[in-house]
């Protein structure tokens, strides 16, 4: 008997594969408007600062996609799962992933984004692109929209917070300010009653409870440079405020909105926030990224399989 074959479209933001692709990538983010030479120089120098000529960022996503396929097929032997990649701002684009599934004869598919928290402006955007392409090609596709309170995800994040607190030798854990962070989005999502901020707070609270933290807060990072206001306070402003007004000397950043090592973690936190912390006299650490942690792979595998069952049972 042949196994039921399920295509899994694994979607994420995307990153260039090498430094010479930064301009095309940035142009795509800016909806076809090429960056000014100054903007391009700034972004390229950020990539150079974290990768030093070698470009591992894309590899992280590739490994997550491979890891998910492996985990799905190990844990759920009643079906065959084939994972495809679909990126927002780099090739293979979301539409390319859908097209490849159809070419390969996939008739049933599940889409999932490598971001645990739902927003109409982030995950919603991926879903719309995938849905439109699938409708055009006649592919049946359903989506996992969020998994921000999955017990295995919370376990993975809790373990990371506990491990990172060990870097503050001789300091009581409640004398370390733990700041959970995620990518900022335009403030207008608040008027739309978007679930993104609430889901992020729910994840933060759940981790704080499991670790037994009383000294924690939330901060935003990596806001876009646009005329419209973005959600704040920004993590750099938070560091200044808590140092000057509360004399906080130990800070642990836990970027729960990001699932792998890339620019927003390796530059925005490890270089930019770290430089400011040194200037302010703060001992700053951050939790390790999830990357291909087996607990994260199992989280994704679980929610994809659950969605298949839900669709099957109607």
Helical stretch tally: 11
Low-confidence stretches: none
Span between termini: 23 Å
What is the CATH architecture assignment of the largest domain?
3-Layer(aba) Sandwich
3D shape: globular
What value does the Rg take, in angstroms?
Answer: 20 Å
Q: What fold name goes in the CATH topology slot of the largest domain?
A: Rossmann fold
Name the average pLDDT: 95
How would you write the strand order of the largest sheet? 2-1-3-4
Largest sheet: 4 strands, parallel
Helix content: 40-55%
Number of domains: 2
Strand count = 8
Structural class, judged by helices and strands?
alpha/beta
SSE topology string: EHHHEHEHEHEHEHEHHEH
- Give the class-level CATH name of the largest domain: Alpha Beta
Strand proportion: 15-25%
Catalytic activity: Fe-coproporphyrin III + 2 H(+) = coproporphyrin III + Fe(2+)
Subcellular location: Cytoplasm
Pathway: Porphyrin-containing compound metabolism; protoheme biosynthesis
Keywords: Cytoplasm, Heme biosynthesis, Iron, Lyase, Metal-binding, Porphyrin biosynthesis
């Amino acid at each position: 008997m042949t196994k039921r074959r399920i295509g899994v479209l694994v979607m994420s933001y995307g990153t260039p594969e090498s430094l010479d692709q930064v301009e095309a990538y940035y142009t795509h983010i800016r909806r076809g408007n090429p960056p000014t030479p100054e903007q391009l120089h700034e972004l390229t120098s950020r990539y150079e600062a974290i990768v030093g000529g070698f470009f591992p960022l894309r590899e992280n996503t590739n490994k997550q996609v491979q890891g998910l396929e492996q985990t799905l097929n190990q844990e759920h032997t009643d079906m065959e799962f084939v994972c495809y990649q679909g990126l927002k701002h780099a090739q293979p684009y979301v539409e390319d992933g859908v097209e490849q599934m159809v070419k390969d004869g996939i008739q049933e598919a599940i889409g999932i984004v490598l971001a645990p928290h739902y927003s109409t402006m982030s995950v919603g955007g991926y879903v719309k692109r995938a849905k439109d392409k699938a409708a055009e090609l006649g592919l049946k596709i359903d989506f996992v929209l969020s998994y921000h309170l999955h017990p295995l995800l919370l376990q993975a994040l809790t373990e990371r917070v506990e491990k990172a607190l060990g870097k503050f030798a001789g300091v009581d854990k409640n004398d370390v300010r733990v700041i959970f962070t995620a990518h900022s989005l335009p403030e207008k999502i608040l008027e739309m009653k978007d679930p993104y901020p609430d889901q992020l707070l729910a994840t933060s609270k759940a981790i704080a409870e499991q670790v037994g933290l009383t000294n924690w807060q939330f901060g935003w990072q990596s806001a876009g440079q646009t005329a419209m206001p973005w959600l704040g306070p920004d993590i750099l402003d938070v560091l200044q405020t808590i140092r000057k007004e509360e004399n906080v000397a130990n800070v642990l950043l836990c970027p729960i909105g990001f699932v792998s090592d890339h620019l927003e973690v390796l530059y925005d936190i490890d270089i930019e926030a770290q430089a400011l912390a040194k200037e302010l006299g703060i001992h700053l650490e951050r939790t390790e990224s999830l990357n291909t942690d087996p607990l994260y792979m199992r989280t994704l595998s679980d929610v994809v399989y659950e969605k298949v069952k839900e669709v099957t049972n109607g």
